């Protein structure tokens, strides 16, 4: 099957980016070097093409009811222009996907069609758009709700501007006051003359923005920023350092399903709302999960990688590494993974089995940047 | 993008090179390979004195994003490893045919060298 191409595909090819299949999309993994791109985001600003992310719009009189039913957070807490991180879970409380839910601002020009009441846009991970549309439509029909569910994935380009200088870079080309947007707040504004939805959100552990613009205007928005283009390789290393979940690695609904509490994102679960998976998660919340998502820092030489076993010093297996890299910021091998709760205390010494060899490591907080800052 | 592929070296399809100086063969990975890998952050090499067969796995090279096995272009006893790579693995990126070399072998089978790809043959497979 041929890969889906983002609207900036030709731009990336001209720039000789290394490309990869990500969720069925051909996306840039590296433009110059992961280290260079990573450092640009930590120290100044980098720009990412994240047009492979899915975008699904939900509108109509029962939009709020439907969103509340299918996401773990409380959408009724959102005012127009607010966004929230949320989980999409199954009946057993296992994470199918993580997502950001936007309650679209008033004065829509770029994104939403006419509709009554609250309108939402949520952003599931790459390649999950059809799965999520089906899930939303099935539940809407089953519950007899009046809501429109529209897959906008191939209508909107998504560009992320991330880093301490992101605010200045965006303010220079945006018509609206983007500097005063709060974290997880979105507004419609013009970016380089293009009507866009701009939110102060990101996934790198830095200040940043995500810009949603019409597909055909992607190049205008992308080329308005004179900063380091970054690929998905740097996105991964930035996320690992900040302890953010990587879909398909830190949770994988097919191969390694996890519930939000063990994945360290219990804050996105509101048990006082009624959503699919709520009852199961209430039980997990009361009893505690068997495993916990932790950070790891390797003390011996080596690099922790997805799938490596985590053991006690005696060799008893207590967990698994789910993401790992040589941290460009800390210049140390770091990872994320799950360990049995009784071995999850920060400071505990464990082993990561690298190609059959036990290597000494320490349990750390998931946000490994805390110490750096 | 074109990559440096010196004419005086022998190559494996798995992107290692071998440079012969008498019975001593120096081994590393190619310019193409280091570019594909990206930033090299870790190299695991055998011990001096280890015996390697031609085509045998002798270590790993890790970039920020990936792990790759390393294969011996020829068989023989390991007579030296480049310990500079333990503290400066980026030498593999910076100078793959020079400071980024990985190990030296005392050639045991003359014919091993004859089986390697020429620079031209190797370049064809990477295009």
TrEMBL record, chain A:
It holds the Pfam family GCV_T_C. SUPFAM superfamilies: Aminomethyltransferase beta-barrel domain, Folate-binding domain. It catalyses: N(6)-[(R)-S(8)-aminomethyldihydrolipoyl]-L-lysyl-[protein] + (6S)-5,6,7,8-tetrahydrofolate = N(6)-[(R)-dihydrolipoyl]-L-lysyl-[protein] + (6R)-5,10-methylene-5,6,7,8-tetrahydrofolate + NH4(+). Residues 10-272 form the GCVT N-terminal domain. GO terms for molecular function: aminomethyltransferase activity; transaminase activity. It is an enzyme of class 2 (transferase). Residues 292-368 form the Aminomethyltransferase C-terminal domain. The glycine cleavage system is composed of four proteins: P, T, L and H. The keyword Transferase applies. Its EC number is 2.1.2.10. The lineage of its organism: Archaea, Methanobacteriati, Methanobacteriota, Stenosarchaea group, Halobacteria. GO terms for cellular component: glycine cleavage complex. Belongs to the GcvT family. Substrate binds at residue 210. This is Probable aminomethyltransferase. GO terms for biological process: glycine decarboxylation via glycine cleavage system. It comes from Natranaeroarchaeum aerophilus. It comes from the Archaea. Keywords: Aminotransferase, Transferase. The glycine cleavage system catalyzes the degradation of glycine.
TrEMBL record, chain B:
Belongs to the GcvH family. InterPro entries: 2-oxoA_DH_lipoyl-BS, Biotin_lipoyl, GCV_H, GCV_H/Fam206, GCV_H_sub, Single_hybrid_motif. SUPFAM superfamilies: Single hybrid motif (SSF51230). The lineage of its organism: Archaea, Methanobacteriati, Methanobacteriota, Stenosarchaea group, Halobacteria. This is Probable glycine cleavage system H protein. The modification N6-lipoyllysine is found at residue 65. Binds 1 lipoyl cofactor covalently. Residues 24-106 form the Lipoyl-binding domain. It holds the Pfam family GCV_H. The glycine cleavage system is composed of four proteins: P, T, L and H. Keywords: Lipoyl. Its cofactor is (R)-lipoate. The glycine cleavage system catalyzes the degradation of glycine. The H protein shuttles the methylamine group of glycine from the P protein to the T protein. GO terms for cellular component: cytoplasm; glycine cleavage complex. GO terms for biological process: glycine decarboxylation via glycine cleavage system; protein lipoylation. The keyword Lipid metabolism does not apply.
């Amino acid at each position: 099957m041929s890969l889906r191409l983002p609207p900036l595909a030709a731009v990336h090819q001209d720039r000789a980016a290394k490309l990869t299949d990500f969720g069925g999309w051909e996306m840039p993994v590296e433009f110059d070097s992961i280290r260079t791109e990573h450092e640009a985001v930590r120290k100044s600003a980098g720009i990412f093409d994240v047009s492979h992310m899915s975008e699904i719009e939900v509108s109509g009189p029962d939009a709020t009811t439907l969103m509340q039913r299918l996401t773990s957070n409380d959408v009724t807490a959102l005012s127009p222009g607010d966004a929230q991180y949320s989980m999409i879970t199954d009946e057993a409380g296992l994470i199918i996907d993580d997502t950001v839910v936007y309650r679209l601002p008033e004065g829509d020009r770029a994104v939403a069609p006419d509709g009554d009441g609250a309108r939402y846009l949520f952003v599931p991970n790459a390649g999950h758009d059809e799965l999520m549309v089906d899930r939303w439509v099935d539940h809407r029909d089953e519950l007899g709700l009046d809501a429109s569910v529209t897959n906008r994935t191939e209508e909107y380009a998504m560009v992320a501007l991330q880093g301490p200088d992101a605010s200045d870079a965006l303010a220079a080309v945006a018509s609206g006051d983007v500097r005063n947007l709060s974290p997880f707040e979105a507004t419609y504004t013009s970016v380089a003359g293009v009507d866009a939805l701009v939110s102060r959100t990101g996934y790198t552990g830095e200040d940043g923005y995500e810009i949603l613009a019409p597909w055909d205007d992607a190049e205008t928005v992308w080329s308005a920023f004179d900063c380091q283009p970054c690929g998905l390789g740097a996105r991964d290393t930035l996320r690992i350092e900040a302890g953010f979940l990587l879909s398909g690695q830190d949770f994988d609904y097919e191969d390694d399903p996890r519930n939000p509490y063990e994945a360290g994102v219990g804050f996105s679960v509101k048990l006082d709302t009624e959503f699919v998976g709520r009852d199961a998660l209430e039980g997990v919340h009361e009893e505690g999960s068997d495993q916990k998502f932790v950070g790891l820092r390797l003390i011996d030489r080596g690099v922790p990688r997805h799938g490596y076993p985590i053991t006690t010093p005696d060799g008893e297996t207590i967990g698994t590494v789910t993401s790992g890299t040589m941290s460009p910021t800390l210049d140390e091998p770091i990872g994320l993974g799950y360990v049995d709760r009784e071995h999850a205390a920060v400071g505990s010494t464990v082993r990561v089995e690298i190609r059959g060899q036990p290597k000494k490591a320490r349990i750390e907080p998931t946000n490994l940047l805390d110490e750096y800052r | 993008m074109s990559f440096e592929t010196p004419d005086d070296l022998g190559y494996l399809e798995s992107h290692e090179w071998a440079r012969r100086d008498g019975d001593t063969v120096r081994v590393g990975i190619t310019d193409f390979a280091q570019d594909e890998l990206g930033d090299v952050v870790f190299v695991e090499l055998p011990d001096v004195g280890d015996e390697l067969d031609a085509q045998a796995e002798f270590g790993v090279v890790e970039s920020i994003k990936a792990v790759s096995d390393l294969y011996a272009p020829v068989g023989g006893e390991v007579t030296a490893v480049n310990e500079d790579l333990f503290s400066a693995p980026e030498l593999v990126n910076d100078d793959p045919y020079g400071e980024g070399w990985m190990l030296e072998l005392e050639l045991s089978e003359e014919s091993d060298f004859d089986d390697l790809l020429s620079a031209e043959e190797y370049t064809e497979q990477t295009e």
